Write the structure tokens for this entry.
Amino acid sequence: MASVNDVLTLFFQHPGHTSFGMSVFNLSNAIMGSGILGLSYAMANTGIVLFTILLVGVAILSLYSVHLLLLTAKEGGSLIYEKLGERAFGWPGKMAAFGSIIMQNIGAMSSYLFIVKYELPEVIRTILLWIICVEYFIHFFLEWYLNGNYLVVFVSIGIILPLSLLKNLGYLGYTSGFSLSCMVFFLSVVSYIFHDTHQSTGVQYEPHPDEAEMCTPKYFVFNSQTAYTIPILAFAFVCHPEVLPIYSELRDRSRKKMQNVSNLSILAMLIMYMLSALFGYLTFYDFVEAELLHTFTKVYTFDTMLLLVRIAVLTAVTLTVPIVLFPIRSSINTLLFSGREFSWIRHLLIAAAILVFNNMLVIFVPTIRDIFGFIGSSAATMLIFILPAAFYIRLVKSVPLRSPQKIMVSPNSALSAAFSPYHLPLLPAVIHRAHHILTNVNLFDPGLTNSLLFPLLSHQAGIFLIVGIFFMIGSLTLITLDWIHNPPGSNKGH
């Protein structure tokens, strides 16, 4: 555990320079990314009521785990995720944190670049058709302009890489604000199209009569695709790798102030997610696809409004990639170059290597849904459930071992670890810690029962946490079965 001097050095000798508002923009932008485009698909495969319950539950769990992470950072004396893991469990904890952050953020970056790959060619095609008006001419002379693989490389080199070279996250607050404005515009257009479709006399999307049932809103749905809901939601709310870097740069930082940043950011994204999912689902019902913009493409071909939405979403996800890249580079620096002075050459090379790897993934992985499913059920599980709970139990010494808080989070850590493929370095230490708790607590002590059981049952985060674990187990099983029976690339998902 860090000494008082270490903590004082951390908090007072290295003050942050980013304002509260910019921190909210940065964290909100880190939360809201490509996941918003998959939420209508998730609602179509769970139903309105079940989706709402799961969405609120995952949001509460994310807030609770951020709360644990901030407490752990204060007690552990570090604002670097990997160092918290090292102080909690040594090298296994450090590697678990490193692997989870790398996997989650690479998955997030890949999903953003997927959108660039599939939507930017359509934007260019539409603009060129309006200008030249001869589709054959475009295909013959400008075919490479319409190749998503080329375009994602150009965007990575021309826009993302320069922004990724900024030394301070705070400078990206302005781009984050603009990015959020683009996504608000996307939500406004989805809402407008929903109301316009239902009020117009000539509905623009008319299903065949025998498909009428597919255009009826459903409240509870269970099918093989329901398994992707929890991973999509977890993927959509994971912001934990960015919490500590943003916390470290927050001006006049305190745990309470950063908690307010997290509360405001997650609440705003919860509202946007709910509205986007609802309007998208009620517009297309069961015809909605894994990527909402792809569904709009089939209905509103070469529509001006759709073009503006595409440009807005492309702008938003492109400006988000540099923010997601920062924690990856920070993790690599911490693991491989700890203690060395800052180097612009190393700064550039790490960013370039990360972008090259992500571009390769985007070119060769078949669908964005596979990114949502795999990353959401693995790395996101580690970052939301396992690591904050395990680090909290290990490092927060000011809370007694027998306290309801630690006993409540220990099943969270142990059970979640059993169902994530990235738990292996951390699992022995977590099991040892859980065994230590259980062998030192008299579960039949009436006083403990009164002080533990009722707070646990009344604590929404604890209830949703346990429910989330069981849903996650089912999701992992069903996703595996779906991949076996419907190999990636053979489905309709974009």
Notes: Residues 25-200+210-485 form a domain with the Hydantoin permease fold (CATH 1.10.4160.10). The longest helix spans residues 91-132. The mean pLDDT is 72. Residues 149 and 364 are 10 Å apart (CA to CA).
